[in-house]
Amino acid sequence: MIADNDIALWRGEDGQIRAWENRCPHRGMRLSYGIVRGNTLTCLYHGWSYDGAGACAGIPAHPDLTPPKTIRAKAYRAADSGGFIWVANPGETTAAPSIDGDWVPNRSVHIDQAPASLNELADGMGAGLMSKITDHAAIVRVPGVEGEILLAFLDMKEHGAMIHTSVPASASEDAAIAVSKLSTRLRQVFKASSAA
Amino acid sequence: MTPDTFTRSQWYAIGRLPDFEGAEAKPVRLLSQDLTVSDAAGVLSVNDADGRSLLTQIRYGHLWTTLSDTPRPLYDMPEFDEPDRRLVTVGGVGVRCSGLRCVENFLDMAHFPFVHTDILGVEEHPSVESYDVSMDAEKDEIWATKCKFFQPMASAAASGGQMTEYKYRVPHPYSTILYKTCPIREDVWDLVGLFIQPVEEDECIVHSFILVFDEENTDTGLLHFQQNIFLQDRMILENQVPRKLPLDPRWELPTRADASSIAYRRWLKANELQWGVALFNEAA
Ligand SMILES: [Fe+2]
Description:
The complex is a heterodimer.
Chain A: E1 7-11, E2 17-21, E3 35-37, E4 40-42, E5 49-50, E6 56-58, E7 75-81, E8 84-88, E9 103-111, H1 118-125, E10 128-134, E11 137-141, E12 149-155, E13 161-168, H2 173-189, H3 192-195
Antiparallel strand pairs in A: 1-2, 2-7, 3-4, 4-5, 5-6, 7-8, 9-13, 10-11, 11-12, 12-13
Chain B: H1 5-8, E1 12-16, E2 26-30, E3 33-40, E4 43-48, E5 53-54, E6 56-59, E7 62-65, E8 86-95, H2 99-106, H3 112-115, E9 132-136, E10 141-151, E11 162-172, E12 175-181, E13 189-200, E14 203-212, H4 219-237, E15 245-246, H5 259-270, E16 277-278
Parallel strand pairs in B: 15-16
Antiparallel strand pairs in B: 1-7, 2-3, 3-4, 4-5, 6-7, 8-14, 9-10, 10-11, 11-12, 12-13, 13-14
The complex binds fe (ii) ion.
GO molecular function, one term (chain A): oxidoreductase activity
Keywords (chain A): 2Fe-2S, Iron, Iron-sulfur, Metal-binding, Oxidoreductase
Protein name (chain A): Rieske-like 2Fe-2S protein
């Protein structure tokens, strides 16, 4: 979800990640129930298929019809980096984050209360900011935990927030477990009642 | 939103007769209002929250009521008086979407191969031939006729694949009836229909019926066939966004196969129906 909009994420055979508005332009069916074949996504309801760029590629009810160009799934910007999938509004012009090194996704947790800022989130985790990537993501270090941590949050307003962490591919198992525990502990730190 | 005049002026089925046997102020919700149904020695009455007694009638195996004092007459289905037909009522099934979406789904043949795979359609025959849509101006209802679709198992009585001929009728914003080729008798139609009880703008209870010539299947068999189909539809209906029906043509893009849905949306608009309709740009 971004800004209250439901998103369908999918990857075709080409490996490219795509983030689309989670509704078929035909009759509003959630595309997340669709089926990926090759590099197309097919809606479960009427079998309308969409190519990787979001253009309607086929309407089974009318096999001989070339779908009008106006039929398109609304595509958000999407990119892979640092073990995360990054999504932005279609009109967003800033470049997608490109994080050096090999990272492995570690943990995603939901917290009731979204942090006001990246600093507040880092404080809640007992972490120090090393370098900021966006207003919602940074590389941090936690005293006593070996190596760097990639930390990001998605503010979902009244629905709380999602916290994501990645660790370097070279991180030890102990470090990975420590980061996972720190992430889980954030649920207590950002509980609905504590901020009320 | 309070229901618009067109919505308010209709009769609505709220259950089958046995559902209210011995009822003492049994709660029922209709058009965002709390009603109660009571059974006094076999006579059913419906009251609103202020104790006002509402009009009622018993027809088509269901109890009907209306919020209006001068309702639009309930549509006729003379087939209910024909001898030898079997009536099976399925009972209410709650669905978290506008009842208007349920009507539209019911009119739609294009989804058969994908949602009712190997029952009402097969993926190898997805094509929807053009059919006729007309308005019966006198009765103010919609008919879609000459609908043909390849079906592997059109009904519980069907023994194999066939081109099934359909007619659809929409005599009421929350009712729709399918007339389909009877697999065992010539020149008659089997009926399947929905009487939808709109609970909230985006929530409803679907009461459905089957009125067929069928000597082979038990009532339970017919019921299971219908329930199975409807549960497949419900999975779709509860995952359409928004839950209310968008009437703004910018919002959902139809194709030729949707001619009946286009006529239905146009008819709702012409009758200034607003309750249960999603407004453009309104958050889903
Ligand atoms: Fe269906």
